[in-house]
User: Fold these one by one.
Assistant:
Number 1:
Amino acid sequence: MALVFTDPPYDRDNLYLYAEVARFAARVPLPGGSLVVYAPNYAFPSVLELCGAHLRYWWTLALALPGHHALMREYGVRVAWKPLVWFTKSGRLNKQQIFDDVIQGGAKERDAHEWQQQVMTAEQVIENLTAENDLVVDPMSGSATTGIAAKRTRRPLAGDRSQAADRRARPPAAPRAVPDVARGSETMKTVIKVKANRLEAGMSRWSVRS
Ligand SMILES: C[S@@+](CC[C@H](N)C(=O)[O-])C[C@H]1O[C@@H](n2cnc3c(N)ncnc32)[C@H](O)[C@@H]1O
């Protein structure tokens, strides 16, 4: 496996999924593998802590968001960029593959999924961090944005097929973020313990296709 690229739900109750996906990426016995996760700005420290417990922090890519910027009233901030946080299993092997750490996002795509990300962004991350025929994995694939990008860039993909239906059946709108990090990491650890098996269950549904 070369790259786990995924976009977990951003609400506070689901932040434990960051730890679970990092734990999974750490278990795969291949050197040079990476995990890149979309992260909510409000919970950036939590993402570092949760994933950093299993993998080595490498870098943060900034996804610049064009157009109308969502207002986070609780913080008095308009969100003009989003972190893509990059962790590695044992360091980066191919440091000759040099690229800029700011990615220019395109116009929002929301035709297939409420939380849909852009294929173009996934393509850039995949091309910058992997070589052709390297495996790409997205355990929380939503509308299969990563899968489409993997196909376009000629990388085999492992994804959760049970979510492929998300492309066809748009889920009901839900709040994307509940910005309350003040409760601290002890609560987080308890949540992780209680819910740790859920992602494992989801991952058992994976299939590999090229
Ligand atoms: C933010 S969406 C991903 C959107 C995707 N990047 C796209 O472009 O369409 C998060 C996805 O994680 C899935 N998910 C939520 N909880 C999960 C869990 N416990 N295990 C695996 N997947 C989960 C949801 O079904 C949803 O499809």
Number 2:
Amino acid sequence: MTDTNMSSSAISTTTSPGPPPAADQSPGTTPKKTIKAWTYTKGGLPRNCLHLTTDHPYPEFPPPSQQAPGSGNESPKEPEEWLLVKVTYAALNPGEVLLMNLLPPLMSLAFSKSAGVPQVPVYDLTGTVLDSSPSSEEADSSSRASDDDEGASSSSKFKKGSKVVAFLPVGFILSSKSGALQEVISFPAKYAVLLPDKVASPSASGASSSSSSGANTTQGGIDKLAAGLFLAGCTALAQIRDAALQPGQKVLVYGASGGIGSMAVQLAREAVGPEGKVVGVCSTRNLKPVFELGCCDFVMDYINPATIFTGEVEQDTIVEGAGSNQEGRTTKETIEQALAGMYDAEEVQFDAIIDCYGSQTLYNYSAGYLKSDGVYSACGIHANGYGYAPILASGWKLMINALWPRTKWLGGTGRTWKAASMFDPGREMMEYLVGLFSEGKLRVLVDSEWAFEDVLSGYEVLLSGRARGKIVIRVGGA
Ligand SMILES: NC(=O)c1ccc[n+]([C@@H]2O[C@H](COP(=O)([O-])OP(=O)(O)OC[C@H]3O[C@@H](n4cnc5c(N)ncnc54)[C@H](OP(=O)(O)O)[C@@H]3O)[C@@H](O)[C@H]2O)c1
């Protein structure tokens, strides 16, 4: 699938529960402003629980008494700044499907008050600031009034009309019932970063000079691409930082074509530099798009690991191998066997593995290709579904990997396992990624773009588990 607008699929449109419109429109009262939003009240997969609501309440700022005091450099008495944002694009992530499927039944058991309150999903968005509270003018005058206050709210840089990219943490989404799949949203300014007007042309910082999956540097393109930046990008960045990569090191990125993986290969190259080595792993159809991100020395195919993809020709992997296991290798081998065949000698093994899919098998056999002091840095363990049983099974494996002694004497792999958890990345990570993005050093691979009414089709692609990069939803357009 390419980056195109998809045709409309069947959608379910409802009005949200609540008083009938007449109650809001009695003579002399102004009709309540409403917006379109995708909401759910009961658990299920998107096609079974998400509804397009046309009369979702227009968001408001919480009263000042309920705006938590700001954090960081801000004065403790300063109310936290909130933004009212017209959403341009949103991007989908597997984690929100998990919340959709599992949380409503749990929430209704634990907190009966929240049962039936419509929840808007989705963490990632770009948009335009419509208003702020306190307004940017008030924030400016209060910062001028304070004595040499260098620490005046860092968020006062948001003005009406500012373009922003934001990541709404799960805690905010659940407590406010407010996510990115709505036309207008209000949220604390600390979750947003200003979007650049322009981004530099992508520079292939790695070994490859090929870079053909074109960057779209118009503002519409920037809004669309940046929507996919934060949840996946911050998770990739957390994984790279967990691995403590150093210039000149050799790193394997598994699941290199997904939302996280496509950014992890680029961040890995940024960390190891041109003198390092980055090897991506994905399925056959994604070899070229991953290689064209311009940061992998070569890409391996986990379906047919006997060949490596170097952009022009597929070569026999044996040319790469320096290990001693080359004899008797067949084209039927698994990716773990192929890697062990290529990298079994300690001096050629990887310094780190960044697993952006969550393969338990790749970790189990990692002693065959990961240095004994190397780090296996995972996004988690892949769950075979969104129900309780697969999630508990993957949680169990995750716990065992983290806690089981590494020593092989006790059945360990002999390799350190770390897992990223991305609940709230904070400004430093978000600003770092926007910086790379605007310098053309971090590209967002977009699987497909969908109209707001076609969100369910976008989720079908996500649920296939085969998205090539991010799935973005055009909520308002740029
Ligand atoms: N730890 C955290 O805080 C955190 C945060 C976000 C997401 N996650 C988790 O991280 C995982 C990836 O997230 P994402 O947003 O990148 O997902 P995604 O965009 O849907 O990507 C999925 C990718 O997995 C690849 N894939 C499918 N089967 C595979 C296999 N057998 N071996 C290797 N790769 C395979 C697919 O590529 P091919 O078609 O090329 O195989 C696809 O590109 C999800 O499980 C998600 O829940 C964790």
Number 3:
Amino acid sequence: MVNTLQQRTGTTLLVMWILLAIVNLIYTNYPNFNPIKMLPAPKNESSFNFTILLYAPPIYPKNYYKIDFLKKCVFHNCKISFDRSLLRYSDAVIFFYKEITFKPPYKFPNQTWILTNFEAPNFKSPGKYIKYFEFDWTMSYRQDSDVYVPYGIIKESRIHAKKNYSSIYAMKTYDVAWIVSNCKTKFRREEYVEKLSRYIDIDIYGKCGWNSCRGSSIFQCKQRLSKRYKFMLAFENSLCKDYLTEKIFHLYRENIDIIPIVRGAPNTEEHLPNNTFVLVSDFKSPKDLAHRLKTIGGNETLYTEMLKQKDKYTAFSDPNEETGIWGLCRACQLLNDNYQSNKTMDIAKWLSGRSCILPSDL
Ligand SMILES: *[C@@H]1O[C@H](CO)[C@@H](O)[C@H](O)[C@H]1NC(C)=O
Ligand SMILES: *[C@@H]1O[C@H](CO)[C@@H](O)[C@H](O)[C@H]1NC(C)=O
Ligand SMILES: *[C@@H]1O[C@H](CO)[C@@H](O)[C@H](O)[C@H]1NC(C)=O
Ligand SMILES: *[C@@H]1O[C@H](CO)[C@@H](O)[C@H](O)[C@H]1NC(C)=O
Ligand SMILES: *[C@@H]1O[C@H](CO)[C@@H](O)[C@H](O)[C@H]1NC(C)=O
Ligand SMILES: *[C@@H]1O[C@H](CO)[C@@H](O)[C@H](O)[C@H]1NC(C)=O
Ligand SMILES: *[C@@H]1O[C@H](CO)[C@@H](O)[C@H](O)[C@H]1NC(C)=O
């Protein structure tokens, strides 16, 4: 009886703590991705409204953009709408790149048109209608977007848990895990993994492998595997500038004691802290990489130094992967600030594959 009560109190406290942590993260991070720069105080909220119209939202996943999303923003005076008949009354209009399959509607004066894209450019040229659109802002994972919406951000960790790295290391009896669901990619991810697996053991989880990792989410699966494995592949499906997804940021969250092996954006080093990951492009061949992994993985000092370094950081990636909220909150802030983009962007170029490289590691 006493035990149960204690457990219940403990659980309640834990849940409250987690909620507080999430609220804290939302309020400190959604609107501004530079943790150092603080937000200006919100302007008088009740005195103006902005409507952000998602004129061409992505088809996937259903109900992804919830009407009350913007409640979580620092600025509460924006609302989103999906009702195209409100075009005339909309302050900002969002078009997802992939959904632009029509000629532009009438652009009302003082309306901000936002071109949005969260997927890697895939060497396909943009659709034929896009050139008729006059966009004012871009919103994407690219750092040069007006509304920069990364899949995650790395911050210095404020939690300094004392861990027994020796015992963490001792638990790790396996080398490399890979969780993957998209089996064939243009950037020959699977081919690289196949070659790497000739030199070091790789266990493949998910749709493309033999092992299944049960858990209510991919993140929980990663957490479980991180206890037994030394390394986890964080291989993006594309090798494009700034394109780092939750595949990578997940592994920087708290209590994931695993070293990521990253194959992704050519400028990955700009986004991740030094000596906390292994970068595939540093190696001439899968064989060389495997050799290095064995050196690190076989040397407790070397390996745990990396873990310790990684523990100095944490990633804030949206807990529900609702990357869209960040973007909309940020867009709302920029509307409030009457932000004027001064970028002259070649949209077609920006969207085409020219920010991507072909793999040279095979
Ligand atoms: C904000 O707006 C409300 C209603 O329009 C007004 O009563 C209040 O004085 C304003 N506050 C500030 C700080 O301007
Ligand atoms: C803001 O929106 C509310 C509700 O939609 C409306 O009643 C109010 O008049 C709007 N205020 C302004 C300044 O447009
Ligand atoms: C556009 O905005 C400017 C400045 O905010 C304002 O002076 C102008 O009247 C607006 N034009 C229209 C058509 O709303
Ligand atoms: C850490 O774990 C190792 C192996 O599990 C154990 O031998 C050692 O005593 C532990 N060290 C501390 C400081 O608890
Ligand atoms: C990261 O590490 C490399 C090699 O260890 C070093 O050359 C580079 O200066 C470091 N970069 C930063 C930002 O510390
Ligand atoms: C392990 O790595 C450390 C740090 O680089 C090095 O000093 C040590 O000699 C290595 N141990 C072995 C057994 O190679
Ligand atoms: C564009 O705006 C940024 C800040 O908003 C400013 O630092 C930069 O100098 C501007 N560039 C041009 C070409 O006006």
